[in-house]
Specification:
Layout (H helix, E strand, L loop, with lengths): L11 H10 L3 E5 L3 H10 L3 E4 L3 H4 L11 H13 L5 E5 L9 H15 L3 E3 L7 H9 L4 E6 L5 H4 L9 H17 L3 E5 L3 H10 L4 E4 L7 E4 L1 H4 L17 H17 L11
Parallel strand pairs: 1-2, 1-8, 2-3, 3-4, 4-5, 5-6, 6-7, 7-8
The protein binds 3-methyl-2-oxobutanoic acid (KIV).
């Protein structure tokens, strides 16, 4: 949407202030113009153009297949639908793991071709050089720790991460490293609530949880999960706010009936 000068865009600075004030941050994923427009107008703080698009938009089993070009398509559509939320775009698998030059080149493409405001990438110590390089180019970076779906074949399962002390200690160290490298926030995915509390309390930047309990500074959900479009996915952490699957099914059944019975279109619905 054209920038509405009356509406103030959320910035990374706003998010820091929200953490300081104890105001929780609400983030949701979106992948297209129409839903972005609804979420933005509803007052969501951050829209994440997640690489979960690979699952929920393209039907892949993992987030690995989605390409940078496909992320750019989704992100530019979302940007056109928003004028208030901060738009964060995931760097997809294979677009930054090679080295920091690859990471900055992918970031530059996202920033130039989508109009998004920040990028997110998964990992800790191993991506710090890339984070520093992207931040030094003036691009806000969000980290992502805990269950990092781009490494699913390393983990082998989607179960809760960092239950063991050694993994929890590494996660705490990684969170501090990401903050020191200049990240403006960190997504914590599927880790114990008390570990998420410890991490959130130790950082000045906000943490955004998904399956990481109520002590995080904000929460994120995948839109297809929270709207009940994706009914097969029912993890314990998910709250479903709508059963869009059944509502849409009912509407389409009705439409089919109306067409078959010649009820649609009626006299008022024709020229
Ligand atoms: O891709 C995505 O949707 C994400 C969220 C699960 C945080 O990274």
């Amino acid at each position: 949407m054209p920038e509405n000068k009356e509406i103030r865009r959320i910035t990374t600075h706003t998010l820091l202030k929200m953490k300081e004030a104890g105001e929780k941050i609400a983030m949701i994923t979106a992948y297209d113009f129409s839903f972005a427009r609804i979420f933005d107008a509803a007052g969501i703080d951050i829209i994440l153009v997640g690489d979960s698009a690979s699952n929920v938009m393209a039907g892949h089993e993992t987030t690995l297949p989605i390409t940078l070009d496909q992320m750019i398509y989704h992100a530019s559509s979302v940007v056109r639908g928003s004028n208030r939320s901060l738009i964060v775009v995931d760097l997809p698998f294979g677009s930054y793991q090679g080295n920091s030059k690859e990471a900055i080149n992918s970031t530059i493409r996202i920033m130039k071709e989508t109009g998004g405001h920040a990028i997110k990438l998964e990992g800790g110590e191993e991506i710090i050089e890339s984070v520093k390089r992207i931040v030094s180019a003036g691009v806000p970076v969000m980290g992502h720790l805990g269950l990092t779906p781009q490494s699913i074949y390393k983990f082998g399962t989607y179960t809760v991460r960092a239950k063991e002390d050694s993994e929890a200690e590494k996660l705490k160290r990684d969170a501090v490293l990401l903050q020191e490298a200049g990240c403006f926030g960190i997504v914590l995915e599927k880790i114990p609530a008390l570990l998420a509390k410890e991490v959130s309390d130790s950082l000045t930047i906000p943490t955004i949880g998904i399956g990481a309990g109520n002590y995080c500074d904000g929460q994120v959900l995948v839109m297809h999960d929270m709207l009940g479009i994706n009914i097969e996915f029912k993890p314990r952490f998910l709250r479903t706010y709508l059963n869009l699957h059944d509502l849409v099914t009912g509407a389409v059944h009705q439409y089919i009936d109306d067409v078959k019975s010649k009820d649609f279109p009626n006299e008022k619905e024709q020229y």
